[in-house]
């Protein structure tokens, strides 16, 4: 039934996507799959940098993608890659960052944060927070960025990390974030564990069992329980969302995360946070990356870019 609900332009790609079983395939093997190479010129080429860690944490690698080197007084995006909190790298996903930076015409900085389960939520948040501090400080001076116009954003787990970072920056009185660009963000550990979803949601690509593995790896305990680890920020469980940056949330209607994403958007709106939502009918998790040239993907990407430009005060 769910396959019939998939948009016709997105069906064929499903046959090319492997069914990942975290209980049978070693995580190291999943992580060792070939990386997607960077896009060649005229796309801006990534520049690797090492920046200082915070609070005694190790230094952090970032990749700077700047389509207009030497420009000044401009916004920037801090990008956080996806991968269910357990795989993926900034380097292997840099092609999408290059395309986004070129489309927006502003620098993107992508963070090589530490992955779970080797590092729990505290370590990944420290890495992402270090990148935000650097971009709002020394990085802003180096790249000609206005520190008052920094957005955070990412896909899937990267969207979850971005939402966590926005909450942490608010609570710590850290660098101001102007906008959140949350692409099908992974923000609720209860989805697929203590909270069931409709049978047709999450049938493709990222499933309930994947979600349980990712969250358990990040939190160090079974997800969906009544209590959460001290210090962990799970966006959908945060009581007070007031004062967070304006947000765009985009998701496919067949994505496992659609219900948690819509619920989070509703709560942001109720808290007085300007929030825009894009829902793509017939789309599953990651559809815009797997079939980037399809009509639904192009409309989704255009909506995201338009929201980002408005959020950062760029001409559309």
UniProtKB/TrEMBL annotation:
GO molecular function: hydrolase activity
InterPro entries cross-referenced by the UniProt entry: AB_hydrolase_3, AB_hydrolase_fold, GDXG_lipolytic_enzyme
Domain of life assignment: Bacteria
Naturally occurring in which organism (per UniProt): Caenibius tardaugens NBRC 16725
Alpha/beta hydrolase fold-3 domain boundaries: 77-287
Pfam families in the cross-refs: Abhydrolase_3
Entry keyword set: Hydrolase
Identification of the protein by name: Putative esterase/lipase
């Amino acid at each position: 039934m769910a396959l019939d609900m998939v948009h016709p332009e997105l069906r064929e790609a499903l046959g090319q996507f492997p069914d990942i079983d975290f209980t049978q395939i070693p995580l190291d093997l999943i992580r060792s799959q070939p990386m997607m190479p960077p896009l060649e010129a005229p796309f801006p080429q990534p520049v690797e940098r090492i920046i200082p860690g915070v609070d005694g944490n190790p230094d952090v690698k970032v990749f700077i993608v700047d389509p207009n080197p030497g420009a000044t007084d401009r916004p920037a995006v801090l990008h956080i890659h996806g991968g269910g909190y357990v795989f993926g790298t900034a380097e292997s996903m840099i092609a999408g960052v290059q395309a986004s930076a070129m489309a927006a015409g502003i620098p993107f900085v992508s963070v090589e944060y530490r992955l779970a389960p080797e590092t729990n939520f505290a370590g990944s948040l420290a890495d992402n927070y270090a990148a935000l501090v650097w971009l709002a400080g020394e990085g802003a001076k180096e790249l000609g960025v206005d520190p008052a116009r920094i957005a955070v954003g990412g896909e899937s787990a990267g969207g979850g990390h971005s939402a966590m970072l926005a909450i942490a920056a608010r609570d710590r009185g850290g660098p101001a974030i102007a906008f959140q660009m949350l692409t099908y963000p992974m923000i609720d550990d209860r989805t697929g564990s203590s909270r069931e979803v409709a049978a047709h949601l999450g049938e493709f690509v990222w499933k309930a069992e994947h979600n349980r593995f990712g969250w358990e790896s990040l939190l160090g305990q079974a997800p969906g329980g009544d209590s959460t680890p001290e210090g962990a920020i799970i966006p959908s469980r945060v009581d007070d969302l007031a004062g967070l940056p304006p947000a765009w949330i985009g998701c496919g209607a067949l994505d496992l995360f659609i219900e948690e994403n819509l619920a989070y958007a509703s709560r942001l709106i109720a808290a007085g946070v300007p929030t825009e939502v894009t829902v793509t009918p017939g789309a599953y998790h990651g559809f815009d990356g797997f079939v980037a040239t399809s009509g639904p993907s192009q409309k989704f990407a255009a909506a995201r870019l338009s929201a980002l430009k408005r959020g950062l005060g760029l001409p559309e």
